[in-house]
Amino acid sequence: MSSAPTVDVRRAQDRAVTTTSWLNSRHSFSFGDHYDPDNTHHGVLLVNNDDIVAPASGFDTHPHRDMEIVTWVLDGSLAHRDSAGNSGVIYPGLAQRMSAGSGIMHSEKNDSATKPVHFVQMWVAPDETGIDPSYQQHEIGDLRGLVPIASGRPRQDAAIAIHNRSAALYAARLEPDAAVELPAAPYLHLFAARGQVNVEGTGDLAEGDAVRFTESDGQRVTAAAPSEILVWEMHTALGR
């Protein structure tokens, strides 16, 4: 645990960006060619990529290893296929997790030939390396309130499971003036995926802004516009 609470606001415009003919990817942490030794992770969260992929385009088959990868679609649909024989289409309100484990190959393609797909992909370090690769997806009906999307926390029900006992991901869709209370945790990451929210004691967040808390104590988040937030609750950090 950290010795004193901290609140680190990261603005959308300060993120590194990867741009190609078919991809606009904005990185909350070091990723790919964008390496900053002072911005490699928070808690056990190593990647929070905010991606827009053009129609009929996407990531060709590529490898991953020893990572819990959670994908959350905001608009459009994303088709997944991997070397373990798993396939599926991810759309808003459907949670997906791929455990890369001992090694897996997969592709992610925009499932539409006419509309872009917008999604957030998050990578969390697993508790153990070399596990069998696996895949899970589950539809979530109601996102009013802070809903557990993915979790490895003991005795916590979530739509999908991850192989990290210290971490849980929540999502909420908020209408104007609706509010939720953040979990109290040694490490917390709040990402404003859409809209605009106000964080108690911190101020306003616009779309793409994030806050990294240590020793968070349950701050209140209130929507100023129709909004969607993603929240990681983490009870340890890498190397702890």
From TrEMBL:
Cofactor annotation: Fe cation
Pfam families for this protein: Pirin (PF02678), Pirin_C_2 (PF17954)
Species whose genome carries this gene: Mycobacterium kyorinense
Matching Gene3D superfamilies: Jelly Rolls
Every Quercetin 2,3-dioxygenase C-terminal cupin domain range: 149-234
Pirin N-terminal domain: residues covered: 14-124
Homology family: Belongs to the pirin family.
Keywords of this entry: Dioxygenase, Iron, Metal-binding, Oxidoreductase
InterPro entries: Pirin, Pirin_N_dom, Quercetinase_C, RmlC-like_jellyroll, RmlC_Cupin_sf
A single GO molecular function term of this UniProt record: dioxygenase activity
Signal peptide span: none
Record's protein name: Quercetin 2,3-dioxygenase
Residues binding Fe cation, per UniProt: 62, 64, 106, 108
Cofactor note: Binds 1 Fe cation per subunit.
